[in-house]
C-alpha cells in the first residue's frame, strides 16, 4: 500500500476507513497522541495510538525524531484546531531516535544553535516553512519568465574571465598547491593547470547572458554564484543563487519595469500558494520582535508587508536626488551615519539605503543613474558623461536586492572605458564581439535569490534561508 502525504489527508473532503502515512514524530503525549509531520505541510496530523493494545516496547520507541509508518482511520478530530486525526490500528517504527540525544527537542532553539545543526534544523516548523517557501519562490521565478517567453540559460560555473569585477573570486585549480609549476618569470604556470589558464568560480552569469540575449532576445539565468568577499554580514553569502534576466532592445526604464513586475509576480505567487507557511512565519516574527525595543520593530506584520509591495509602486529616484535627500537627512546632519554623505559621488552604504527605504520613502525604492566611477565598466554612459544607466532596487530590512543596468552597446565607448579601468581587451574578446556584430541596446539585472527569500519569510539572517550556508570560516555539511 502506498502511503499518502499528510497535506493531502488534512485537505481531504471526507473521512476515510484506512489511510497509511509515514513521517517523523514531533511529539508524543500521554502515551497516546503522536504529532506526526512528513514535510508536506507545516501542520502535523494527530495520530491517536491505542495504547492498551500496543506493546509497551513499541510505545517506548515512539519518541521525538523517530521515523514511523502507521495505518488507521482518518476520523473527525475531537481536539481543537484540527479537522482530522488518525485513529491508529497498526504502527511500525522505521527508524529509532534517541530522545536524550536528538538535538531538535520540542522547545525553542536559538537560530545560532540551529545553524550548527543545519542538517536537522529543517525538521523544525520554521525551517520546514522557509524551505517550502524557497522552493515555491524558485518555481515562481521560472514560471514568470517561461510565461513571458524568456529562454532559461545555464551559464558556466567555472569561468575564465575574471574581469566582471563584481567581487573577489574563488580560484579553481587542479595544480598541486604544495608544488606549483613555475614559468620562466617565476610565476605560477597556469598553462599547466586543468584548463590551461587561470580560472575562477563565477561571480555572475551576466556577460555570457548578454551574448545569449543578443541572439535569443530575452533570456534569464538562475544559478549559484560565488564571492570570496570577507563580509561577515547578515546579508552576504560566499555562495548564493542569482537570477539574471537580460533583454535585447530594453532600455533602463524597461529594465526597471521588468524588475518590478517580476518581483511582484513571484511574491504574489508565493503568498497565494504558501498561506499556512507564511502565517506561521508571521507569528514567528511577531514573537521574535517582542524581544526588540519598540523603535526597531517593524510597523507591518509579514503579510501586510508583502501586500504593501504588491499594491504600491516602487519609488524611483535618481542617485543625484537620493544624495540630496541623504545630505539633508537628520542622521547625516547629526553625524549618526558611520559614513557621512559629504558630496555627490559618494557610494551608498547599506545604512543610507535603509534610511531611504525605511525612513524617508517607507517603500521599496529604485535608485538609478549612478556616478560612473562607482559602478561596473559595462554600464551605459549617460549623455552627461558622468553617470551610467545603473539601477539598484532597495528593500526594507534588506537594502539592495537587485542590481542592474542598461549595458554599454557602443563598441568605441566600451573600449575606451575598459582602457581607462585597465581591463584587458584580449581577455574579453568574445564579449566585445557582441558589440562588433549586430550590437543593440540591451539591459538586465541580477536579483539575489536569498535576499528575496529573506524578505518573503521575514527572516533576518541570510544564513537561515539557504539550506547549507557558506560564509567566511564556514563550509560545514
Ligand atoms: O549587484 P550585483 O553584484 O550585480 C551583478 O552581479 C550583476 N552582474 C547583475 C546583472 O546586472 N546581471 O549582484 C546582484 C544581486 C545584489 O543586488 C544582491 O541581491 C545579490 O546579488 N548579492 C548577494 N547576495 C548574497 N550574498 C552576496 N555576497 C551577494 N552579493 C550580491
Ligand atoms: Mg550591486
From TrEMBL:
This is Asparagine--tRNA ligase. GO terms for cellular component: cytoplasm. GO terms for molecular function: asparagine-tRNA ligase activity; ATP binding; nucleic acid binding. Coiled coil: none annotated. Gene3D superfamilies: Bira Bifunctional Protein, Domain 2, Nucleic acid-binding proteins. The keyword ATP-binding applies. Its main location: cytoplasm. One of its GO terms (biological process) is asparaginyl-tRNA aminoacylation. Homodimer. It comes from the Bacteria. Residues 131-467 form the Aminoacyl-transfer RNA synthetases class-II family profile domain. It catalyses: tRNA(Asn) + L-asparagine + ATP = L-asparaginyl-tRNA(Asn) + AMP + diphosphate + H(+). Belongs to the class-II aminoacyl-tRNA synthetase family. It is found in: Cytoplasm. Its EC number is 6.1.1.22. Keywords: Aminoacyl-tRNA synthetase, ATP-binding, Cytoplasm, Ligase, Nucleotide-binding, Protein biosynthesis. Pfam families: tRNA-synt_2, tRNA_anti-codon. It comes from Flavobacterium macacae.
Amino acid at each position: 500500500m502506498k502511503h499518502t502525504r499528510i497535506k493531502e489527508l488534512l485537505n481531504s473532503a471526507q473521512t476515510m476507513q484506512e489511510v497509511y502515512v509515514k513521517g517523523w514524530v514531533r511529539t508524543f503525549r500521554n502515551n497516546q497522541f503522536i504529532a506526526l509531520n512528513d514535510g508536506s505541510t507545516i501542520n502535523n496530523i494527530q495520530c491517536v495510538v491505542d495504547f492498551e493494545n500496543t506493546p509497551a516496547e513499541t510505545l517506548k520507541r515512539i519518541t521525538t525524531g523517530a521515523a514511523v509508518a502507521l495505518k488507521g482511520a482518518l476520523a473527525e478530530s475531537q481536539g481543537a484546531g484540527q479537522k482530522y486525526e488518525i485513529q491508529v490500528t497498526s504502527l511500525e517504527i522505521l527508524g529509532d531516535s534517541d530522545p536524550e540525544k536528538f538535538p531538535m527537542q520540542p522547545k525553542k532553539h536559538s537560530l545560532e544553535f540551529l545553524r550548527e545543526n543545519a542538517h536537522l534544523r529543517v525538521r523544525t516548523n520554521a525551517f520546514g516553512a522557509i524551505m517550502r517557501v524557497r522552493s515555491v519562490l524558485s518555481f515562481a521565478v521560472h514560471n514568470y519568465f517561461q510565461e513571458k517567453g524568456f529562454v532559461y540559460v545555464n551559464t558556466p560555473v567555472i569561468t575564465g574571465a575574471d574581469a566582471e569585477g563584481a567581487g573577489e573570486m574563488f580560484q579553481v585549480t587542479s595544480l598541486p598547491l604544495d608544488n606549483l609549476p613555475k614559468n620562466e618569470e617565476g610565476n605560477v604556470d597556469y598553462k599547466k593547470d586543468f584548463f590551461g589558464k587561470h580560472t575562477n568560480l563565477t561571480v555572475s552569469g551576466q556577460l555570457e547572458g548578454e551574448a545569449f540575449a543578443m541572439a535569443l532576445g530575452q533570456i534569464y539565468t538562475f544559478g549559484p554564484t560565488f564571492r570570496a568577499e570577507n563580509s561577515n554580514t547578515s546579508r552576504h553569502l560566499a555562495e548564493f543563487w542569482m537570477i539574471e534576466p537580460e533583454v535585447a532592445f530594453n532600455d533602463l526604464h524597461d529594465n526597471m519595469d521588468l524588475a518590478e513586475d517580476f518581483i511582484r509576480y513571484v511574491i504574489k505567487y508565493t503568498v497565494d500558494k504558501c498561506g499556512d507557511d507564511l502565517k506561521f512565519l508571521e507569528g514567528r516574527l511577531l514573537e521574535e520582535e517582542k524581544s526588540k525595543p519598540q523603535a526597531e520593530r517593524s510597523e507591518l506584520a509579514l503579510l501586510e508587508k508583502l501586500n504593501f509591495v504588491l499594491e504600491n509602486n516602487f519609488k524611483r529616484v535618481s542617485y543625484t536626488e537620493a544624495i540630496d535627500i541623504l545630505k539633508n537627512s537628520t542622521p547625516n546632519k547629526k553625524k549618526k551615519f558611520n559614513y557621512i554623505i559629504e558630496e555627490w559621488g559618494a557610494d551608498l552604504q547599506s545604512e543610507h539605503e535603509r534610511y531611504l527605504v525605511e525612513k524617508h520613502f517607507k517603500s521599496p525604492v529604485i535608485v538609478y543613474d549612478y556616478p560612473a566611477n562607482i559602478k561596473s565598466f559595462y554600464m551605459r554612459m549617460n549623455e552627461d558623461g558622468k553617470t551610467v544607466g545603473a539601477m539598484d532596487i532597495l528593500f526594507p530590512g534588506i537594502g539592495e536586492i537587485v542590481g542592474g543596468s542598461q549595458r554599454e552597446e557602443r563598441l568605441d565607448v566600451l573600449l575606451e572605458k575598459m582602457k581607462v579601468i585597465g581591463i584587458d581587451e584580449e581577455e574579453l574578446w568574445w564579449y566585445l564581439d557582441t558589440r562588433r556584430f549586430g550590437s543593440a541596446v540591451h539591459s538586465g539585472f541580477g536579483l539575489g535569490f536569498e535576499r528575496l527569500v529573506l524578505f518573503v519569510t521575514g527572516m533576518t539572517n541570510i544564513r537561515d534561508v539557504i539550506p547549507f550556508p557558506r560564509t567566511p570560516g564556514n563550509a560545514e555539511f
